[in-house]
Design a protein that fits this description.
alpha+beta; five-stranded antiparallel sheet; 3 helices; 7 strands; Roadblock/LAMTOR2_dom; molecular adaptor activity
Length: about 130
């Protein structure tokens, strides 16, 4: 399914991501569709990631993990988490069509982040409900 977002909706998405997630001290938040296209991208100004490659790889990674879930009898896995030495990545599905990718350091609690991501997903879902689908 495709969505058409207007400027007000894009600003609403960015406001949710900024207030609910970036203000926690995250390094980067990217909202993508399942094909890896970037819907919104916010960072703390200190990130030098190639977000386009990251978005494409995140979508592919999530797709691969969903295929693995199907093999073991699960519908899908709603979230993924990869822990690094200094940076971590958390992926969470937003509805069936989007993926929220957060990059954060070890100074951010994973449990608290998951709680805030869940709250953000609820808010984003309400924004997407008002979009025109084609």
């Amino acid at each position: 399914m495709s969505y058409i977002l207007d400027q007000e909706q894009l600003e609403g998405i960015e406001e949710v991501l900024q207030k609910d997630l970036m203000d926690l001290g995250l390094k980067c938040v990217i909202l993508i569709d399942m094909a890896g296209n970037i819907i919104a991208n916010l960072d703390n100004g200190q990130v030098g990631h190639d977000v386009y490659s990251l978005a494409a790889l995140a979508a592919g990674n999530f797709g691969a993990v969903c295929a693995m879930a199907a093999i073991i009898g699960e519908d899908d896995f709603a979230l993924l988490f990869h822990k690094g030495k200094s940076e971590n990545i958390h992926f969470s599905k937003v509805m069936d069509d989007f993926l929220l990718v957060t990059i954060f350091g070890n100074d951010v609690s994973l449990g608290y982040l998951r709680l805030k991501v869940d709250e953000s997903i609820t808010k984003l879902g309400k924004i997407f409900e008002t979009t025109r689908q084609v």
